[in-house]
Amino acid sequence: VASRSAVGAGIHLLRKMASLADMLLTIGGSQDTRNLLPKLGYKRCGELRRYARVIRPWLQFRTTPEQNWKTAIKFLRNSTQSLKGIPAAPGGWQATKIPRFTESIEGVIGRPTSSTSPRRTAAGLNYLLSCPAASFSGFLVSQERNLRGYFLLAQVGGQARIVDIRLDSEDRESWQAMCALAVRAAAEDPETCEIVAASSVEATGESWLQAGFAHRETDPILCYDPRNLVSSGPPLDLSLADGDLCFLSEPLSPYLS
Length: 257
Hints:
Number of helices: 8
Mean pLDDT: 90
Order of helices and strands: HEHEHHEHHEEEHEHE
Strand content: 25-35%
Shape: globular
Low-confidence stretches: none
Helix content: 25-40%
Strand order of the largest sheet: 1-8-2-7-6-5-4-3
């Protein structure tokens, strides 16, 4: 539908889809897409900030396809930043890798928060686990044997992505513990050079910064919302799991750092 030989087909399909739902949401996209969507009635309703932390700078340097004079500078910067150790989770916190999610997780992830979050279900998470475009893995997080939340990882080449993470509380210390566990799990793979996480909520982004990440990219969140269902509500709480950024591969530019 994006072919120049079918002018208007994409817009027609988009409008048809819009008639089937209360709203449409898109994250990022090409510059052409970002220029077109506002003309179709989309409005900016937030931004998804992507954070990255380099774990193995030498391996990242060797596996970077296109190198130039900036590559050596980035290697020195990433090497310096990687000297900061991965934060440890407080005592009593534990992450357990699981083959599939069960409905028991829905009692934790269904609790209300101050943000508008996409609905998560065990079936939806398992659907991501079966995605063939990347290697996904799921983890349950507990504190003193009490289930507190989960996180979902995707391995795309030398980049590990924390594509989704949910906690039953908005407590800052608990979030820092969750992030520490997710980073440690992502770093265990010896092929992982860089770990990437994302959030559209400032408080969660602050937790990634506290975990040694750096803000690298910002993607606009655009919404077609004729009934103002989202635009007039609390801020959106989105992650990489809410778009193709959870599995999208760019072989010539595989890293953010």
